[in-house]
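Trying the structure run again after the queue cleared.
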Amino acid sequence: MTIAFKEIVSSVPEVSCSNCQACCCRLEVMIITDTGVPLQYIDYDQWGAETMLRLDDGWCAAVDRETLMCTIYENRPLICREFEMGSYECEDERRDMA
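Done. Tokens:
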């Protein structure tokens, strides 16, 4: 690894709860298992499949807009549970939001 590349990698902050931008909370999320998502957060796509409700601003209805934290964390859909903070997909979404 070259020194310049090491400097770039070390200058990019690791994603953590304190700097998470909740970019994944703007993605369409299908509800494919029963995790107990409250009914007021459920919507239906054009084919009738259950999805997380997104508000007019594009964000998931379950996200607190001030803290960017999930208000139904214990009952979030399986897809949300499996989306790893700091993963390639997470970093990709963060780049797209910038």
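The first strand starts at residue 42 and ends at 44. Worth checking whether this holds up in the mutant runs.
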